[in-house]
Structure formats: structure tokens, C-alpha cells
Task: inverse folding
């Protein structure tokens, strides 16, 4: 019997078409699966163990999905809860779920799949030769692993299946692969393995594989030979082009996707339009391999203070880079003279917003903007040092002259004070895989009857 997976959106907190969701529920899915995050926004969420998404937005959308789950009578599952999938963000999502259960008078069985890794476990695996770098990967040793603020392992289908096997009506997962939450049930029910992983990859971002990406809701039907994908929004369609193109999304190889326990190979996949809305895919292959899980880790790389000024005088706008170069050299001397700090003990970087803030030396567009934002970023070993450098450079960023024979300029700034202490700067410090003899050995599963004191 085919397995129908309803994907409401590419990520919880981004929004979805509620009419499309209702249409999806009417199609009688077997499970509702949604992603909760990724590494797209950088290392901060993982390093700090917090969600990047608004709690209010998350709760509002989760309310709709809990209501939809109750109506459909099927499991509701979220992967990579709270953006990064640490134990702390699983607990954050669980608390939201408990709040909503009380408000909605629901008493669902809740399974929590934890994916955070004790640093000592990873260090031991590294010493045993069970941790292998991917490309590119930073150099690591046991000491550097022990200094990481958070480490997670990406769960695959097996761990999600274990959570579903508890009979839970709501499953909140820590870090998972983007596809595992969608592929888990079709694989558990014996559907085509290649189709399960391929269809999960296509549906991972919801309606991004359709002609109306912002509508969110996608229904994927898996069976013994392939899968069929259909958007639920009335004004959306899936085409062979929109579906096949999604293998390019966040994937270094458009034909191969690695997952725990093997790889998906779509070189022989064929995409066929069934009608104006639906696409049928067959020919995908699952190739079993060693069981490894990807590791992600973050650490504090310093503390930051920023300053923002805006150049509007045409002389400064047209010569902004020359001004920043001159200012940087001057400030280096001032910081050494007044604070005794040489470059290496801190880092000061200026980004020219409107000229080359995003690409730096790679920028190839030319033109003269009406104004240029000058963003100074100070990074140091402590927040106190970064803030002190920010205060030192403040008057010069706002008044430093381009030439020696001009009146002292004054630049505008959008807020006061012009400096802002940003706190810790995190950086990714792991891009490795860890071999496991048992898929569950690095994960923890808890089950709870929401609304009762029972904990299994």
C-alpha cells in the first residue's frame, strides 16, 4: 500500500499556505513531516544551542500542525528541532508542544530523539579511528574536540524509525539529515528504498520543487517502484524540470546523495509528468554502505563588537576604499600605542556596504552608490577587549579625514551608540563522519505521555 508523506513547509517558522495544508490533510497522509532547521544561517545556533526562529512564529505554526495531526490521526514529526538540533533545542520544542497540548486540550504521546554528542565520546571515537574528515574539514585532535561548545550527530532513517516505533503521535528529533524524517516511514513500510530517499530529497524544502515555492505544502506518495510528488496549493504545479532540479540544491553532486548507511544514486532516474500538477519518478537506486553519521560542531572563536557609520559625501563615497585603507593603518597604530595590542591579538575588518560587503575582492560590479555604509567588525579574545577597541576607534570612524588639508568631517550613524557588543563569535569546527556499530548508540530516545507524569 502506498505511503503518503505530507510536508507542510521547508522549515517550521517560515510559513505555509493554510488552505494548501487543509487540502493535504484531506488527501489522507500517513504522516506529517517537517524540518526544523539547518546550518544555512551559520554556526551561531549550533554554538549557542538556540533557535534562530521566533518562538511566537514557531508556536503559531506548530499549533496548526498539531491541529492538523489530530484531524488526520497520523504522526507529526519534526527534524533538527530549533534550527540546530541540540538537546537544548529539542527541549525548547518539547516545551512549546506541552504548552500547546494544554491549550488545545490534547494528550498526545511524545517521543524525543536526542542527537547531541558528549565531546568525550567524539574524542574517544577519534582516537579509535572511527572519525573521518570530509572535504573540506578543519584539522582536529582530541583536545580541540573537548573544547567545542556543542556537537551533534545527524540521525538517519533508523533513529527516526525507532522514535516512530514507540507509537508516538508527535516526534521531536534533534539533528537529522534533511531527508531522514521523510524517508523513514516509507522505508519502514517496505517502499522502494531509492524512491524513499530520492522523494525525501525532492520534498525536503516543501514547495521549493514546485512553481510556487512560497506555498510550502507538498504531498509525496511512495510505493514499491517509485514516487509521485504533488503540490497542495491550488496555484502550484510540479514539473519534471522543477522536480529534477532539486537534486542540485545543497548537494555537491547532482546524481549522488550520501546518507547514513549508504548513498542515493539518481543517474538512472526518469521524471514523467502525470498531468499539469504531478510528477512521477522511477529508477532511483539506493546503494548500501558503511554506517556513518555526520558530525557537526561549533566553538567560540572570539568575541565581537561592531560599529556602523554611513558615508554620504561624494568625495568619500567615490573613494571609500582608499579612506578605509588609510583609516585601518592609522587605527592599527593607535590600538598598539594606546592598548599595547598588535594584529594577531585582535582582528579589525571594515566592510563597505553598497560596494563590496558581500564578496570583497571578488566583487565585479561597478557603479557609484549614493551612500556607503562602513561596518567595522572587531574580533578579540574577550568581549571586554573587543568593546574597548570599539570605543577607541569610535571617534575616528565617525570623523577621520580622507586628506590632510580638509576640515574635520562628520559621518552619519543610524543609531547611538554607534558600537554594538555582539558577544561570542562561533565557528564550525567539525565536518566529519563517525562510524557506528549500532545506529542508536549515539542517540537517546525518551517517550512521554503529554498531560501525565509518566516518563518511559
Result:
Amino acid at each position: 500500500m502506498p505511503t503518503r508523506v505530507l510536508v507542510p513547509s521547508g522549515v517550521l517558522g517560515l510559513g505555509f499556505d493554510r488552505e494548501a495544508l487543509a487540502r493535504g490533510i484531506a488527501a489522507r497522509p500517513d504522516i506529517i513531516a517537517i524540518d526544523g532547521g539547518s546550518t544555512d544561517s551559520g554556526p551561531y545556533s549550533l554554538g549557542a544551542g538556540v533557535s534562530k526562529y521566533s518562538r511566537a512564529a514557531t508556536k503559531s505554526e506548530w499549533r496548526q500542525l498539531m491541529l492538523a495531526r489530530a484531524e488526520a490521526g497520523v504522526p507529526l514529526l519534526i527534524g533538527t528541532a530549533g534550527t540546530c538540533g541540540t538537546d537544548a533545542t529539542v527541549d525548547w520544542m518539547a516545551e512549546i508542544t506541552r504548552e500547546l497540548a494544554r491549550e488545545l486540550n490534547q494528550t498526545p504521546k511524545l517521543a524525543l530523539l536526542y542527537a547531541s554528542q558528549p565531546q568525550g565520546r567524539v574524542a574517544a571515537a577519534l582516537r579509535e579511528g572511527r572519525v573521518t574528515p570530509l572535504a573540506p574539514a578543519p584539522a582536529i585532535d582530541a583536545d580541540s574536540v573537548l573544547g567545542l561548545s556543542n556537537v551533534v550527530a545527524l540521525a538517519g532513517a533508523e533513529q527516526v524509525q525507532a522514535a516512530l516505533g514507540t507509537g508516538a503521535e508527535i516526534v521531536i528529533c534533534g539533528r537529522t539529515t534533511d531527508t531522514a524524517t521523510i524517508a523513514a516511514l516509507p522505508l519502514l513500510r517496505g517502499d522502494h528504498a531509492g524512491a524513499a530517499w530520492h522523494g525525501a530529497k525532492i520534498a525536503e524544502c516543501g514547495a521549493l520543487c514546485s512553481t510556487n515555492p512560497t506555498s510550502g505544502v507538498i504531498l509525496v506518495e511512495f510505493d514499491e517502484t517509485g514516487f509521485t510528488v504533488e503540490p497542495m496549493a491550488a496555484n502550484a504545479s510540479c514539473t519534471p524540470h522543477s522536480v529534477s532540479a532539486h537534486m542540485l540544491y545543497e548537494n555537491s553532486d547532482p546524481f549522488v546523495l550520501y546518507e547514513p548507511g549508504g548513498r542515493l544514486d539518481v543517474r538512472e532516474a526518469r521524471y514523467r509528468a502525470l498531468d499539469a500538477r504531478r510528477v512521477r519518478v522511477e529508477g532511483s537506486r539506493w546503494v548500501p554502505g558503511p554506517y556513518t553519521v555526520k558530525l557537526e560542531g561549533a566553538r567560540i572563536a572570539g568575541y565581537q563588537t561592531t560599529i556602523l557609520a554611513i558615508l554620504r559625501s561624494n568625495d568619500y563615497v567615490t573613494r571609500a576604499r582608499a579612506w578605509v585603507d588609510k583609516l585601518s593603518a592609522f587605527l592599527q597604530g593607535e590600538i598598539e600605542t594606546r592598548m599595547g595590542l598588535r594584529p594577531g591579538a585582535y582582528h579589525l575588518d571594515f566592510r563597505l556596504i553598497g560596494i563590496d560587503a558581500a564578496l570583497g575582492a571578488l566583487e565585479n560590479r561597478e557603479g557609484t552608490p549614493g551612500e556607503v555604509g562602513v561596518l567595522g567588525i572587531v574580533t578579540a579574545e574577550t568581549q571586554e577587549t573587543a568593546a574597548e577597541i570599539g570605543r577607541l576607534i569610535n571617534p575616528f570612524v565617525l570623523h577621520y579625514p580622507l586628506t590632510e588639508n580638509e576640515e574635520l568631517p562628520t559621518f552619519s550613524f543610524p543609531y547611538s551608540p554607534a558600537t554594538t557588543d555582539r558577544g561570542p563569535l562561533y565557528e564550525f569546527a567539525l565536518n566529519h563522519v563517525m562510524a557506528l556499530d549500532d545506529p542508536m548508540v549515539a542517540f537517546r530516545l525518551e517517550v512521554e505521555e503529554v498531560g501525565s507524569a509518566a516518563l518511559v
DSSP finds 13 helices and 19 strands in the chain. The mean pLDDT is 95. The two ends are 32 Å apart (CA to CA). The chain has two domains: 3-115+154-291+436-449, 299-429.
